[in-house]
Amino acid sequence: MTRSTIRVLKHNSILVAVALAIGAGAGAPAFGADLLEIFRLAKSSDAVYGSARAAWAAAQEKLPQGRSGLLPSASISASTQHNDRSINFRDPATVDNNTRFNSNVLSLSITQPIFRRQNTVVYEQAKTQLEQADAVLALSAQDLITRVSQAYLDVLLAQDNVALAGAQKTAIAEQLAQAKISFEVGTATITDTHEAQARYDLSVSQEIAARSDLEIKTRALEQLIGRAAPGLAPLSPALKLLSPEPAAMDKWVEEARNNNHQVRAAQSGATLATQEVERNRAGHYPTLDAFATWSENRTGAGTFGGAGNDINNKIIGLQLAVPIYQGGLVSSRVREAMANEDKARQDLENARRTAELNARQNYLGVTSGIAQVKALEAALTSSQSALDSSRLGREVGVRTQVDVLNAQQQLFSARRDLAQAKYNYILSTLRLKAAVGRLAEEDLAGVSAWLERK
Fold first, then answer.
1. pTM (2 decimals)?
2. What is the rounded CA–CA span in Å between residue 68 and residue 58?
3. pLDDT by residue (tens digit) across 106-137?
4. What is the spatial distance between Cα 163 and Cα 286, in angstroms, rounded to a whole number?
5. What domains can be seen in the chain, in order of their start residue?
6. CA-to-CA distance for 53 and 46, rounded, in angstroms?
7. Which residues of 5-31 are buried (b: 16+ CB within 10 A; e: fewer)?
8. 3-state secondary structure of 77
């Protein structure tokens, strides 16, 4: 076996180690928590989602509050007082009167609104607010899924970058050692050694930066789950690239325009603003209430020198109130509500356009991501062949050390780009479903199936 053949086999063994390191991740166990498990941890710990759930629970009380304006109201009042009364007459023939007595009053009042347009609108607004709260909570749940997926895949990519940087440093160190030996025996110039040394120093810097980035990405994931990040299951090499179904962008765009949760929330906001205009206009309307009152007044003996008395009073009736003029307050509030209604309509249109844009971007992200992954897989194979050819060419004198280093750099760049493309494809798939309001926890189970597990 020739010396050049031994070197080629040695370099190939290094590349095999590189591939294994990338597949296992940098410093992470080969098998760990999958994306679905991480999401469930975040679901119970993330403060942003917890805030959204609390806001949703608070919004549920809007309905009983709105209904209360249509139901009867009742109140009981009671009072007791001690009276010390002195009456002095100006007629000397009349005897002055000094009395002390107690008086007690007990009353029950019941009022039933018969016609109060404002109260009816408030009840309808409460129903709309519940619909809006449901949409906002669903939007927050989707946001949590995308944030967790982004953080999870960011950690995987950072681990890949650390593994690549370490493997690249090892490979360049081998090239540097060989360049030094070749210079000592006179088969290469000092330029090759300096070039290899420069590349090695750069690779050390890149590895430090990659490890720092991994630390940052890990802390971002820990912020979501509220605990130390466990080992993560890496992406399986057998990733299935699935095209969007249906395979027509316009259908995704139309679905996003109608079913996107942000659009649903904005639609409820527009409906609420229209109802607010009606509620303020109702300030011009008359109100009609039915009421009933029962009272008992007990007064002790000594009132004007006479005996005590008990008075029972029962009243039932209707009360009509017709607003005539309130200084222009109602008209001003109507104009304000109409301006807010126009704002809500503009917000709704903006939400629809944003949803359409997101659907288009993520649809293209999926379709172009599939093509990019396939292209980079082909580029990776070509880069490996180019590196092998450059090494053999250097052995026979038709390639230089710089050519080998450049080919080596191209190979590692192809590996890094391929990993990034795969993660971008997964995120675009999830975000496309989010754009049309269909992203759910079950979708993470599908992504977890692409991860390596025991």
1. 0.82
2. 17
3. 999 999 999 999 999 999 999 999 999 999 99
4. 76
5. 3-60+116-285+323-448 (1.20.1600.10)
6. 11
7. eebeeebeeebeebeebbebbbebeee
8. strand
